[in-house]
């Protein structure tokens, strides 16, 4: 451990009591590893929507201003009153960012498990990954197959495990097919591959024809375009053909989640032999797992009386899942890292480049199919 750096750079996010978001690069100490810990030189960490939720908080990024220097850039932006209410618990806290990533173990504690990772490329889930160095417990790391790059291993947790958890949840709750929105996203493409491999019918909702073409190229068969004038009829037909009664919605705001529930009820009603004023009685479920649209969620009439709409997060799922379920999911991610769970990035950034204002605007747009990677070692 003689060569262990004393400090490294890390992206920090702060909301001041005066209602200002401050993003900066800070020099932070590198903690030497304990007995069952390792120090990872982070070489790849993705920018996921969940990371952006912490990074920019409730700030109005149209007010953002660049400051600092090229080597130590800063960004400030105003946080509106509604944002301050939502962010109350974090006001005044200077927080690190980054859920997951990959890199090389450069120091290891004395335990056999830690020593086994020395010099290896590992993938990590531990927070604070937008850092040059990260000290982690070995339980937060998985060794990657020989020859795997940090870019290939950087996104092993959030998107792969979330997409696998959708299928696990579908089965556990007694459903047989899935509806998914923002379906051309990195996660959506993984779900298409999982469902094809596992024989699970999947209805993919996209916004553009090029997104539909992308999914067709992966083998998807049920694709509907939410901007089409025939969207609702197309969705009902796809649900009738697949029998989907559970949906996972990345959009959150607006009418889409409600439209899925209406379409599920319409599909079930068309199969009824006798009319009932209470609807089909078919239980339907839509989970909101993202907020690409921050406006209120609108649910219209026509859903029957057996519908459910609720939030969904990966972490509670993993906490409740049986150990053998988690182990099976982790193994599948590693086994299919370069096929089912391959991630593709629009651009790779240094820590300083991640705090370049035009670049931040680009990745904060959360455009479908666009994903950015930070390489803190650059």
What does this structure look like?
There is one protein chain. Helix content is 31%, strand content 29%. The protein folds into two domains: 181 residues, Medium-chain alcohol dehydrogenases, catalytic domain (Quinone Oxidoreductase, Chain A, domain 1, Alpha-Beta Complex), CATH 3.90.180.10; 161 residues, 3-Layer(aba) Sandwich (Rossmann fold), CATH 3.40.50.720. Strands 3, 7, 8, 9, 10, 19 and 20 form a seven-stranded mixed beta sheet that branches. Strands 13-12-11-14-16-18 form a six-stranded parallel beta sheet, sandwiched between helices. Strands 4-5-2-1-6 form a five-stranded antiparallel beta sheet. The relative contact order is 0.15. It is an alpha/beta fold. It starts with 6 loop residues before the first strand and ends with a strand.
Quickly list its features.
single chain, 20 strands, Rossmann fold, 378 residues, 7-stranded mixed beta sheet, 31% helix, 6-stranded parallel beta sheet, alpha/beta
């Amino acid at each position: 451990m003689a060569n262990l750096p004393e400090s490294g750079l890390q992206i920090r996010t702060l909301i001041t009591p005066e209602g200002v978001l401050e993003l900066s690069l800070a020099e932070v100490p590198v903690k030497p590893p304990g007995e069952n810990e390792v120090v990872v030189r982070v070489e790849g960490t993705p920018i996921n929507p969940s990371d952006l939720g912490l990074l920019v908080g409730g700030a109005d990024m149209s007010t953002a201003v660049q400051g600092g220097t090229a080597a130590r850039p800063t960004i400030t932006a105003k946080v509106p009153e509604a944002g301050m209410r939502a962010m109350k618990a974090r006001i005044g806290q200077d927080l690190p960012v980054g859920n997951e990533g990959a890199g090389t173990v450069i120091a290891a504690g004395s335990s056999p498990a830690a020593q086994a990772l020395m010099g290896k490329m590992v993938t990590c889930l531990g927070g604070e990954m937008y850092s040059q160095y990260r000290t982690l417990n070995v339980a937060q790391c998985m060794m990657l197959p020989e020859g795997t790059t940090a870019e290939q291993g950087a996104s092993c947790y959030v998107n792969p495990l979330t997409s696998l958890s959708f299928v696990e949840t579908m089965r556990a709750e007694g459903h047989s097919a899935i509806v998914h929105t923002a379906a051309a996203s990195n996660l959506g493409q993984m779900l298409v591959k999982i469902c094809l491999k596992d024989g699970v019918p999947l209805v993919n909702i996209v916004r553009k024809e090029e997104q539909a073409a992308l999914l067709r190229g992966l083998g998807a068969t049920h694709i509907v375009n939410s901007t089409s004038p025939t969207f609702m009829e197309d969705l009902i037909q796809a649900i009738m053909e697949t029998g989907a009664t559970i949906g996972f919605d990345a959009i959150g705001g607006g009418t889409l989640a409600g439209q899925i529930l209406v379409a599920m009820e319409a599909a079930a009603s068309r199969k009824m032999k006798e009319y009932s004023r209470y609807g089909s009685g078919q239980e339907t479920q839509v989970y909101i797992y993202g907020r690409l649209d921050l406006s209120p969620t609108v649910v219209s009439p026509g859903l029957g009386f057996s519908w459910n709409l609720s939030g969904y997060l990966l972490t509670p799922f993993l906490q409740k899942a049986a150990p053998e379920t988690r182990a099976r999911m982790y193994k599948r991610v590693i086994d299919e890292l370069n096929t089912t769970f391959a991630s593709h990035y629009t651009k790779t950034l240094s820590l300083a480049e991640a705090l370049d204002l035009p670049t931040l605007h680009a990745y904060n747009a959360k455009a479908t199919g666009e994903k950015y990677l930070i390489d803190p070692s650059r």
